[in-house]
Amino acid sequence: MREPGDQIETIRNTETLADLAAVVGADSEEEGYFRAKQIWESSIAERQAGESPPDGLPGTTVTVDGHSMHVHGVTHAGSTPERESLREYVTRFLDRGAVVYCEQGIRSMYFEEMAGVCEMDDYLWATAACEELDEASEFDAFYEGVESVSMDLGEFVTEFRERTFSMIDAGSAMYGEQFERTLGAIAADLFADHTDRAVGNSYEAFRLSQEASEDPSKLHALQQYYERTFLPQPLEREWLRRHDPELELFSHARNERMAEYVQYHNETVEEVHVIVGAAHQHGVAYYLDQFEEGDLDQTEFELY
Length: 304
Prior knowledge:
Helix content: 55-70%
Low-confidence stretches: 136-154, 164-184
Order of helices and strands: HHHEEHEHEHHHHHHHHHHHEH
Strand content: 5-15%
Number of helices: 17
Mean pLDDT: 82
Strand order of the largest sheet: 1-2-5-3-4
Largest sheet: 5 strands, mixed
């Protein structure tokens, strides 16, 4: 029986769901995925419990070819407190000669009119990649028109989930934090499907994001949530490709694209900051580290 620390390192180096099932002693790949999630989350949470919040803008730092790449996860709330905090940090970065890249959509939200902030093309890339997917099947042809109905239903469920989470969050002062989190966990399980765990959708993510948008000093807690929630990128991406290939492109696949974008454009600047949604921080850092290890090679790159 492997010690928890050894098992975590084995999971970290596992690249397929088939191998993952064997690592955790599961009878199926699905069982292995969810069992590995539990092992990973528990072990990472234990390590995080002994960590102190970092000084400055929190994030993950990876060194690639002597360049310090700092990946910072933020919310997409567009709140005034977060906007003011991020602009203050980014101004300091730019003043000392650093270069700043951001996920597509974040620049207009937080850094409009800041000429030194470069917006990447990750959404344009994902859209183009989606158009190349051939998802036609006999099932789709037989049930023509069902897709639009299911999309409408999915949008309804998403909206209803957000409203439910908001109501639970609003009642925390009355019922207490423990009861609030219990209700949130129940609601998250009620709305969850096979893709939610792979993209970090949960009440805890909702609550932490809300808190961080109002108090940017809590960004580190949100970043920690995603660190313990996501398995290494190859595993999450294989899981999503099986259940929702388009979602895989717009979520974890964009992490690799953003890492490639930064690596392609940065040639000489030694201090690089990459500002992305918190759910992307550890994935982008993972792929930047793949460049450093030589597992990714910048052979071709097409701008969108």
